[in-house]
Amino acid sequence: MFDALLLARWQFAITTVYHFLFVPLTLGLSIMTAMIQTKYYRTKDPKYKTMTKFWGKLFLINFAMGVATGLVQEFQFGMNWSEYARFMGDIFGAPLAIEALLAFFIESTFLGIWIFGWDRLPKGVHLASIWLVAIASNLSAMWILVANSFMQHPQGYVLNNGRVEMDNFAEIVSNSYFFHQYAHVFTAGLATASFFMLGISAYHLMRKKNLHVMKSSFKFAAVMGLIASLAVAGVGHMQGQYLTEEVPMKMAAMEALWDTEDSAPLALVAGIDTENKENSFEISVPGLLSFMAHNNFTEEVQGINDLQAEYEQEYGDGNYIPDVPLMFWSFRFMVGAGMLMVLSALAACFLSKTGREVKGSKLMVVFLPMMFAPFVANSFGWILTEAGRQPWIVYGLQKTSDAVSQVVSGGSVMVTLVGFTLLYLVLAIIDVALMIRAAKTVEDEAAKPKAAEEGSLWI
User: Fold this and answer.
1) For residue 449, which phi and psi values (nearest 5 degrees)?
2) How confident is the model over 373-401, as pLDDT tens digits?
């Protein structure tokens, strides 16, 4: 019950997954808010100003929660994972420092300018501020993923006195794992924001309120949602093919493929017997996994058992198999949510094209629960990323069991685990309450008197 390693892993898993609920929405909503304000800048239509302020307010609430929940991660590296910090600090610290000193600094500074600059700054300058926020938000994610990609696929380092030290910064930044991972996160962010906007817009349209604003929001979110959903599926497919070549154990665990096969089937469902390292039953499509992995129905796909034997020869005795049931079902929940998103986005585009979004179509009610589909996909996708690397915390270099702090007791970790969980529960209640209140209130800019000498004052 008080095993420090197990509790530290649970603590990091809970806090990271909770934090990652806010990250994709921040990434996507910042860009979409900037796009709407650009439309306002070009057309001068107050409808788009109303939309910008409405979605911008929801973005701000989510941004604040993301910052608050992200701070906890830093404490855990020093307290629970000090051996990891000692081993990886020279490399892991560099992109995190750049993220904080460059990306987050730009993001927070220009966010303040954007908040207080309405009707004070020239419109072009004010528009530039929200675009800088959007760019910096995504740069911030970029540097975090640079650090994470090294843990998944180390390169550009040397081992010195039991530590990894930076040898080539360009190689670390140009890590092939990073490009696949970042593309997946970027498109997932746009999809998350689109379905968030789609659900809230549908709520107002079903209540026949703020129709001129929410009809435009619904149409914009439908188009962006379809594009982003198809894009995230496409880059996810390419990432899967990359994993097959570079991190084959992760792919094999995701598919519960125990033995290497030339025409590997894709299991739709399976009874996974980890003790005997086989599937007790499965419903599968012959050859489909080989096709998805190699664009060839007969190409070989490596299995878990053969990879385990290969890793034992390379790294020594040990269990190098991740949690196969967790990987298998997480992948299917992620893909299932993604497929529902594509279908829902198609339905939304159809309703918007035919004008049925304001005519009481029964399909509109679907978009409220579909708001949560991207969050399900994002959470299980992040679980796949981190759990699929086990038993390594830095792939091939340091095991998770060797990364935990040696002087922190299980009882101490339990106290912080409970404390952080309760704190996050309180923050979740506050966040939901603020989001619901903000989502229900639309302040129509067209109904307000025009500000005197708009755009002539500077803060």
Assistant:
1) -65, 145
2) 999 999 999 888 888 888 988 888 888 88
215-250 exposure pattern, b = at least 16 Cβ within 10 A, e = fewer: bbbbbbbbbbbbebbbbbbebbeebbebbbeebbbb
Q: Angle, nearest 10°, between helix axes 46-79 and 211-246?
A: 40
| Phi, psi (deg, nearest 5) at residue 20 | -75, -10
DSSP 74-110: HHHHHHT-HHHHHHHHHHHHHHHHHIIIIIIHHHHHH
Write the CA distances from 334 to 47, 191, 256, 428, integer angstroms. Answer: 36, 13, 16, 23
Number of neighbours of residue 440 by Cβ within 10 angstroms: 12
Dihedral over alpha carbons 15, 20, 25, 26 (to 10 degrees): 80
Q: Do residues 255 and 307 touch, judged by C-beta distance below 8 A?
A: no
Is residue 389 within 8 Å of residue 395, measured between CB atoms? yes
Query: Cα-flanking dihedrals φ and ψ of residue 55, to 5°?
Result: -70, -30
Task: Quickly tell me which residue has 């929801």 as its tokens.
Answer: 58
> What confidence tens digit (pLDDT) does each residue in 220-236 have?
999 999 999 999 999 98
